[in-house]
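Entry type: protein chain
Record version: 2
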Amino acid sequence: MRTMNNRHPAPCRNDGFSLIEVLIAMAILTISIFGLYSLQVTNIQRNNKGNAITSASTWGTDQVEYLLALDYEHPDLADGSHGPFNRELYDISWVVSTDTPLVGSKSVTISVNSLIHGGRHSYQVSCIKGKNI
């Protein structure tokens, strides 16, 4: 006589991921990558703007040193506006006012402007040149 074997079927084992779980993981990864991409683009833009501002301030500082080294009566220190003069990607100009703020001194305001990296960047610096200095 044959005996019937009453075994219970083995329970299903989940040894892997279902297709839905993989698709959800891929969607989360894609959204994360787009977020990181957006941050990277913003970072590059701000870094470029910072470089432009740093370059403008360097040109302005160089111009201050040049003007302060000149003789008090030099034509570049005559009353009025001077420039703009192109220096690489920057336009440099300055305005001289004689006897301002004191008699025997000149007030000089230097402006550096550029249109690089998708925007207008400006930098201004002021100094005072004394007659006997």
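Comment: The chain has a mean pLDDT of 86.
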